[in-house]
Amino acid sequence: MSLPDYISEIKSYLVTAGFDEQINSAVILGSGLGSFGEHIQNAITIPYGHIPSFPQSTVEGHSGSLIFGTIDGNTVLAFSGRFHHYEGHSFKKTVLPVQLAKSFGVHKLIISNAAGGINLNFSVGNLMVIDNIIRQNMMISEPSPKTWKYNLYEYADRVFDIAGELDIPVKRGTYLYVKGPNYETKAEIKAFRYMGGDAVGMSTAPELMEAAKLGVRAAAVSLITNAAAGVTDQKLDHAEVKEAADLKKEEFARLVKGLIDKL
Ligand code: HPA
Protein backbone atom coordinates (compact mmCIF):
# COMPACT_ATOMS: atom_id res chain seq x y z
CA MET A 1 0.00 0.00 0.00
CA SER A 2 1.73 3.22 -1.07
CA LEU A 3 1.62 6.41 0.96
CA PRO A 4 0.99 9.88 -0.50
CA ASP A 5 4.13 11.71 -1.75
CA TYR A 6 3.77 14.43 0.90
CA ILE A 7 4.36 11.83 3.61
CA SER A 8 7.94 11.21 2.49
CA GLU A 9 8.52 14.98 2.22
CA ILE A 10 7.24 15.46 5.78
CA LYS A 11 9.39 12.58 7.00
CA SER A 12 12.54 14.02 5.39
CA TYR A 13 11.86 17.36 7.05
CA LEU A 14 11.44 15.70 10.45
CA VAL A 15 14.54 13.52 10.12
CA THR A 16 16.55 16.65 9.26
CA ALA A 17 15.09 18.22 12.42
CA GLY A 18 16.46 15.31 14.50
CA PHE A 19 13.73 12.63 14.47
CA ASP A 20 14.97 9.02 14.11
CA GLU A 21 14.37 7.25 10.78
CA GLN A 22 12.55 4.40 12.57
CA ILE A 23 10.28 4.96 15.58
CA ASN A 24 8.74 2.29 17.83
CA SER A 25 5.41 3.77 18.88
CA ALA A 26 3.07 6.62 18.08
CA VAL A 27 0.32 8.25 20.12
CA ILE A 28 -2.50 10.44 18.86
CA LEU A 29 -3.64 12.62 21.76
CA GLY A 30 -7.32 13.46 22.07
CA SER A 31 -8.92 16.69 23.30
CA GLY A 32 -7.41 17.82 26.59
CA LEU A 33 -4.92 14.92 26.67
CA GLY A 34 -2.04 16.83 25.09
CA SER A 35 -0.21 17.09 28.42
CA PHE A 36 0.93 13.48 27.87
CA GLY A 37 3.73 15.14 25.88
CA GLU A 38 5.34 16.12 29.22
CA HIS A 39 6.18 12.45 29.83
CA ILE A 40 8.38 12.26 26.75
CA GLN A 41 12.10 12.48 27.46
CA ASN A 42 14.71 14.15 25.23
CA ALA A 43 11.81 15.70 23.38
CA ILE A 44 12.04 17.52 20.08
CA THR A 45 8.79 19.48 19.67
CA ILE A 46 7.78 20.99 16.34
CA PRO A 47 4.62 23.08 15.93
CA TYR A 48 2.43 21.76 13.11
CA GLY A 49 2.65 25.18 11.48
CA HIS A 50 6.39 24.68 10.84
CA ILE A 51 6.01 21.33 9.09
CA PRO A 52 5.59 21.50 5.31
CA SER A 53 2.29 20.04 3.97
CA PHE A 54 0.94 19.60 7.50
CA PRO A 55 -2.66 20.67 8.10
CA GLN A 56 -3.33 22.92 11.07
CA SER A 57 -5.36 21.82 14.04
CA THR A 58 -7.85 24.50 15.02
CA VAL A 59 -9.61 22.96 18.00
CA GLU A 60 -9.27 24.47 21.44
CA GLY A 61 -7.52 22.00 23.76
CA HIS A 62 -5.33 20.64 20.95
CA SER A 63 -2.02 22.45 20.94
CA GLY A 64 -0.99 21.34 17.48
CA SER A 65 2.56 20.03 17.71
CA LEU A 66 4.49 16.94 16.89
CA ILE A 67 6.80 15.55 19.57
CA PHE A 68 9.56 13.00 19.13
CA GLY A 69 11.46 11.52 22.06
CA THR A 70 11.68 8.47 24.30
CA ILE A 71 9.61 6.85 27.05
CA ASP A 72 11.42 4.20 29.10
CA GLY A 73 13.84 3.61 26.25
CA ASN A 74 11.20 3.30 23.48
CA THR A 75 11.16 5.93 20.77
CA VAL A 76 7.81 7.69 20.52
CA LEU A 77 6.09 10.03 18.10
CA ALA A 78 3.24 11.99 19.71
CA PHE A 79 0.63 13.98 17.84
CA SER A 80 -0.56 16.64 20.23
CA GLY A 81 -3.59 17.76 18.27
CA ARG A 82 -5.37 15.85 15.51
CA PHE A 83 -7.24 16.71 12.36
CA HIS A 84 -11.01 16.38 12.41
CA HIS A 85 -13.19 16.16 9.36
CA TYR A 86 -15.48 18.79 10.89
CA GLU A 87 -12.65 21.33 10.80
CA GLY A 88 -12.80 21.14 7.02
CA HIS A 89 -10.03 18.57 6.52
CA SER A 90 -10.68 15.91 3.91
CA PHE A 91 -10.76 12.35 5.24
CA LYS A 92 -7.47 11.82 3.43
CA LYS A 93 -5.88 14.48 5.65
CA THR A 94 -7.49 13.27 8.88
CA VAL A 95 -5.51 10.04 8.57
CA LEU A 96 -2.17 11.76 7.94
CA PRO A 97 -0.86 10.89 11.45
CA VAL A 98 -1.44 7.18 10.77
CA GLN A 99 0.31 7.37 7.41
CA LEU A 100 3.23 9.29 8.90
CA ALA A 101 3.50 6.72 11.71
CA LYS A 102 3.59 3.98 9.06
CA SER A 103 6.40 5.76 7.20
CA PHE A 104 8.49 5.74 10.40
CA GLY A 105 7.91 1.99 10.76
CA VAL A 106 5.80 2.43 13.91
CA HIS A 107 4.51 -0.91 15.13
CA LYS A 108 2.28 0.30 17.98
CA LEU A 109 -0.17 3.13 17.48
CA ILE A 110 -2.27 4.33 20.38
CA ILE A 111 -5.24 6.47 19.45
CA SER A 112 -7.03 8.41 22.18
CA ASN A 113 -10.04 10.66 22.28
CA ALA A 114 -12.49 12.46 24.51
CA ALA A 115 -15.98 11.00 24.19
CA GLY A 116 -19.47 11.37 25.58
CA GLY A 117 -20.80 8.44 27.62
CA ILE A 118 -23.92 6.85 26.09
CA ASN A 119 -23.84 3.69 28.20
CA LEU A 120 -25.73 4.42 31.42
CA ASN A 121 -23.19 2.42 33.42
CA PHE A 122 -20.40 4.80 32.44
CA SER A 123 -19.31 7.80 34.51
CA VAL A 124 -17.31 10.87 33.67
CA GLY A 125 -13.63 10.00 34.04
CA ASN A 126 -13.98 6.36 32.90
CA LEU A 127 -11.50 5.07 30.35
CA MET A 128 -13.04 2.87 27.65
CA VAL A 129 -11.10 0.47 25.45
CA ILE A 130 -12.70 0.64 22.00
CA ASP A 131 -13.55 -2.83 20.80
CA ASN A 132 -15.92 -1.89 17.98
CA ILE A 133 -17.04 1.16 16.03
CA ILE A 134 -20.29 2.35 14.50
CA ARG A 135 -20.12 5.06 11.88
CA GLN A 136 -23.19 7.22 12.04
CA ASN A 137 -22.17 8.81 8.76
CA MET A 138 -21.10 6.20 6.23
CA MET A 139 -19.44 8.89 4.12
CA ILE A 140 -16.37 8.16 6.11
CA SER A 141 -15.59 5.25 3.85
CA GLU A 142 -13.65 7.67 1.61
CA PRO A 143 -10.10 6.71 2.55
CA SER A 144 -10.69 3.03 3.03
CA PRO A 145 -10.84 0.04 0.70
CA LYS A 146 -13.97 -2.11 0.48
CA THR A 147 -12.56 -4.61 2.90
CA TRP A 148 -9.90 -4.32 5.55
CA LYS A 149 -6.93 -6.57 5.52
CA TYR A 150 -6.62 -6.44 9.29
CA ASN A 151 -9.09 -6.66 12.10
CA LEU A 152 -9.88 -3.16 13.39
CA TYR A 153 -10.02 -4.15 17.01
CA GLU A 154 -7.59 -7.01 17.08
CA TYR A 155 -5.73 -5.60 20.06
CA ALA A 156 -8.70 -4.59 22.25
CA ASP A 157 -8.45 -7.76 24.35
CA ARG A 158 -4.75 -7.20 24.90
CA VAL A 159 -5.31 -3.54 25.89
CA PHE A 160 -7.96 -4.64 28.35
CA ASP A 161 -5.57 -7.20 29.87
CA ILE A 162 -2.69 -4.72 30.09
CA ALA A 163 -4.95 -2.23 31.93
CA GLY A 164 -5.79 -5.06 34.36
CA GLU A 165 -2.10 -5.87 34.89
CA LEU A 166 -1.51 -2.18 35.70
CA ASP A 167 -4.53 -2.03 38.03
CA ILE A 168 -6.17 0.65 35.91
CA PRO A 169 -9.95 0.22 35.85
CA VAL A 170 -11.26 0.40 32.28
CA LYS A 171 -14.55 -0.19 30.52
CA ARG A 172 -14.77 -1.55 27.03
CA GLY A 173 -17.29 -0.88 24.33
CA THR A 174 -18.41 0.47 21.00
CA TYR A 175 -17.38 3.94 19.87
CA LEU A 176 -20.02 5.65 17.81
CA TYR A 177 -18.47 8.07 15.36
CA VAL A 178 -20.31 11.25 14.43
CA LYS A 179 -19.02 13.89 12.09
CA GLY A 180 -19.77 16.83 14.41
CA PRO A 181 -18.92 19.58 15.12
CA ASN A 182 -22.15 20.08 17.03
CA TYR A 183 -23.06 17.82 19.88
CA GLU A 184 -25.89 15.34 19.43
CA THR A 185 -29.53 15.76 20.32
CA LYS A 186 -31.11 13.79 23.16
CA ALA A 187 -33.11 11.76 20.62
CA GLU A 188 -29.97 10.91 18.66
CA ILE A 189 -28.23 9.65 21.79
CA LYS A 190 -31.25 7.51 22.65
CA ALA A 191 -31.18 6.07 19.13
CA PHE A 192 -27.41 5.49 19.36
CA ARG A 193 -27.93 3.59 22.62
CA TYR A 194 -30.42 1.29 20.88
CA MET A 195 -27.89 0.85 18.07
CA GLY A 196 -25.32 -0.42 20.54
CA GLY A 197 -23.10 2.64 20.99
CA ASP A 198 -21.38 3.02 24.38
CA ALA A 199 -19.55 6.29 23.75
CA VAL A 200 -19.85 9.00 21.11
CA GLY A 201 -17.14 11.13 19.54
CA MET A 202 -15.94 12.94 16.45
CA SER A 203 -12.64 11.27 15.65
CA THR A 204 -10.72 7.98 15.82
CA ALA A 205 -12.84 5.87 13.44
CA PRO A 206 -11.08 7.11 10.27
CA GLU A 207 -7.69 6.67 11.97
CA LEU A 208 -8.47 3.13 13.15
CA MET A 209 -9.65 2.23 9.66
CA GLU A 210 -6.50 3.61 8.08
CA ALA A 211 -4.33 1.72 10.57
CA ALA A 212 -6.16 -1.50 9.70
CA LYS A 213 -5.65 -0.75 6.01
CA LEU A 214 -1.92 -0.10 6.40
CA GLY A 215 -1.30 -2.96 8.81
CA VAL A 216 -0.27 -0.74 11.72
CA ARG A 217 -1.05 -2.38 15.06
CA ALA A 218 -3.47 0.07 16.68
CA ALA A 219 -5.32 0.36 19.96
CA ALA A 220 -7.89 3.03 20.76
CA VAL A 221 -8.99 4.39 24.12
CA SER A 222 -11.72 6.91 24.95
CA LEU A 223 -11.82 9.08 28.01
CA ILE A 224 -15.44 9.69 28.95
CA THR A 225 -15.41 13.44 29.53
CA ASN A 226 -19.15 14.01 29.80
CA ALA A 227 -22.45 12.22 29.83
CA ALA A 228 -23.82 12.33 26.27
CA ALA A 229 -26.80 14.58 25.54
CA GLY A 230 -29.90 13.73 27.55
CA VAL A 231 -28.17 11.30 29.93
CA THR A 232 -28.17 14.05 32.55
CA ASP A 233 -29.73 17.53 32.57
CA GLN A 234 -26.34 19.18 32.23
CA LYS A 235 -25.59 21.24 29.12
CA LEU A 236 -22.59 20.10 27.06
CA ASP A 237 -19.65 22.35 26.44
CA HIS A 238 -16.00 22.00 25.54
CA ALA A 239 -14.79 23.33 28.93
CA GLU A 240 -16.28 20.24 30.59
CA VAL A 241 -14.31 18.00 28.23
CA LYS A 242 -11.05 19.72 29.17
CA GLU A 243 -11.83 19.64 32.89
CA ALA A 244 -12.51 15.88 32.90
CA ALA A 245 -9.43 15.19 30.81
CA ASP A 246 -7.29 17.19 33.23
CA LEU A 247 -8.46 15.15 36.22
CA LYS A 248 -7.64 11.85 34.54
CA LYS A 249 -4.43 12.78 32.77
CA GLU A 250 -2.11 10.84 35.10
CA GLU A 251 -4.07 7.59 34.82
CA PHE A 252 -4.32 8.02 31.08
CA ALA A 253 -0.55 8.57 30.89
CA ARG A 254 0.08 5.43 32.93
CA LEU A 255 -2.10 3.37 30.59
CA VAL A 256 -0.47 4.78 27.45
CA LYS A 257 3.02 4.13 28.87
CA GLY A 258 1.94 0.57 29.71
CA LEU A 259 0.70 0.07 26.16
CA ILE A 260 3.92 1.43 24.68
CA ASP A 261 5.81 -1.04 26.82
CA LYS A 262 3.61 -4.14 26.59
CA LEU A 263 1.27 -4.09 23.57
N1 HPA B 1 -20.37 14.01 21.72
C1 HPA B 1 -19.51 14.00 20.68
N2 HPA B 1 -18.21 14.16 20.82
C2 HPA B 1 -17.72 14.31 22.07
C3 HPA B 1 -18.57 14.34 23.20
C4 HPA B 1 -19.96 14.17 23.01
O1 HPA B 1 -20.78 14.18 23.97
N3 HPA B 1 -17.76 14.53 24.29
C5 HPA B 1 -16.49 14.60 23.82
N4 HPA B 1 -16.45 14.47 22.48
Commentary on this structure:
The protein is α/β, with parallel strands linked by helices and 263 residues long. It has a single domain, classed as Rossmann fold (3-Layer(aba) Sandwich). The protein has helices at residues 5-16, 91-94, 96-103, 156-165, 186-195, 205-214, 238-247, 249-262, and strands at 25-29, 41-47, 65-71, 74-80, 108-117, 127-135, 171-177, 199-201, 218-227. A five-stranded mixed β-barrel has the order 5-8-7-6-9, surrounded by four helices. A hairpin with a 2-residue loop joins strand 3 (65-71) and strand 4 (74-80). Helix 3 packs parallel to helix 6 (205-214). The two termini are 24 Å apart. The site of hypoxanthine has 14 residues, from strand 5, strand 8 and strand 9.
Would you summarize the structure shown here?
With 263 residues, the protein is an alpha/beta fold. The protein has eight helices and nine strands.
SSE map:
Layout: H1 5-16, E1 25-29, E2 41-47, E3 65-71, E4 74-80, H2 91-94, H3 96-103, E5 108-117, E6 127-135, H4 156-165, E7 171-177, H5 186-195, E8 199-201, H6 205-214, E9 218-227, H7 238-247, H8 249-262
Parallel strand pairs: 1-4, 1-5, 5-9, 6-7, 7-8
Antiparallel strand pairs: 2-3, 3-4, 5-8, 6-9
The structure holds hypoxanthine.
